[in-house]
Amino acid sequence: MNFPLIDSLIKKRTIILDACNSMANPLCYFFFISILLLFANAKTQYHHFVIQATPVKRLCKTHNTITVNGQFPGPTLEVNNGDTLVINVVNRARYNVTIHWHGVKQIRTAWADGPEFITQCPIRPGGSYTYRFTIQEQEGTLWWHAHSSWLRATVYGALIIHPKEGEFYPFPNPRRETPILLGEWWDANPIDVVRQATRTGAAPNVSDAYTINGQPGDLYRCSSKDTTIVLVDSGETSLLRVINAALNQQLFFTVANHKLTVVGADASYVQPFTTSVLMLGPGQTTDVLITGNQPPARYYMAAQAYASAQGAPFDNTTTTAILEYKNTPCAVQGIKINPIFPSLPPFNDTATATAFTTSFRSPSKVELPTEIDENLFITVGLGLKNCPKGASSSSCQGPNGTRFAASMNNVSFVLPPNFSILQAHQQGIPGIFSTDFPAVPLVKFDYTGNVSQSLWQPVPGTKVYKLKYGAKVQVVLQGTSIVTETRQVYLSMDGQSSDLLLTTQESG
């Protein structure tokens, strides 16, 4: 029972009931009681996150890895639709940090969204910040992660949203539920990796391994003993909450000899469909039902890259976990029973990726607006900056002595130095950002063909595009081929504020 909230409502009951009396409307009383019951079922959860360096051993080496509460991955948060979360974050690491609640609709709580220098200034080493927000009309799987530099490589965890108390899933209730967090692991400090890329202007080094629930799996050196194991019973149905927490890479995911029934994605239910392979982009989640209908044995879960851009380097390794039936026959002494390995698509199998992404359907009819208030056409891709005069060649290691710089509509985002954009907007602080982000590319060109070198260099700036609250907006995203083809783009609009911020950031 959320007593503080109930007390607050009761204190205001006189005003509400007086209004009901003045209208002499019995429906008003019914509405008031319904609101009380609604909030009575909601809860407030309190959590304490300590960001700290923790020794973590992977791939034979131990690194002082930035974690939450000493855990990698971090704690799983489980709430009900309608609950409020209050998370006090204490930063005991040597880096600035913020925490982003990926996919949560931050309705009137933009200060809790978390992107560094966008909705808040970072939490400095030794400092703390309290996030408070309410889950509103969302059910399924989301996740949380650091939103400062590359701390997201290790600072992340699952955020599971169950139906409201007394309500149920729109599919048969699973016997058990298991988060499956796919990640990337560098055999180095991830902050050093991105700082090297910033210093040289080149692409950052690709990861050394992928992980499932923080473990690379037994295809990597020094990793067999700690491979993640998911137990199931014959005949039972489990819900796997698959999260792509990888920093940069789209991933295929499959389970040997088992079909996966997709029932949700990104905290929304979907029309169920069955597939043998998932494809998730960074930040995406997919809820799947899996039934233990195979002979009792050990079966590999596996994930590897989907990377179709020609010439772009990527981590071409495979992470594994083990789906193990509880009644699997015991191994004969001295003989190891290897798990059954699945068939994974080739890394450039666009047909499989497309077949999966085009299978999603809403479980009910979706009303689309017939009139659009704002049309945004946004080109997204990598650009190249010429080496600054006087700079050494070691700081310009992009193609032909350039520096990489990502852009949207030829604008490469620059982080504000002292104030967050939301703070500057709310307090009217001038000079932090401008509102001239272009709604369409300033120059039209063949976006997927040979691009003129005059269009390679983006303009640096801290630019936003402002929208009126409630505006109906159509956004068209167009990949470009300045360096290589942009096959897939992710646009995050998690916050529910009145301004839409569209940004990319250059590497240097």
TrEMBL record:
Its main location: secreted. Binds 4 Cu cations per monomer. Keywords: Apoplast, Copper, Lignin degradation, Metal-binding, Oxidoreductase, Repeat, Secreted. GO terms for molecular function: copper ion binding; hydroquinone:oxygen oxidoreductase activity. Its cofactor is Cu cation. Residues 51-165, 177-327 form the Plastocyanin-like domain. One of its GO terms (cellular component) is apoplast. It catalyses: 4 hydroquinone + O2 = 4 benzosemiquinone + 2 H2O. Belongs to the multicopper oxidase family. This is Laccase. The gene is LOC107762767.
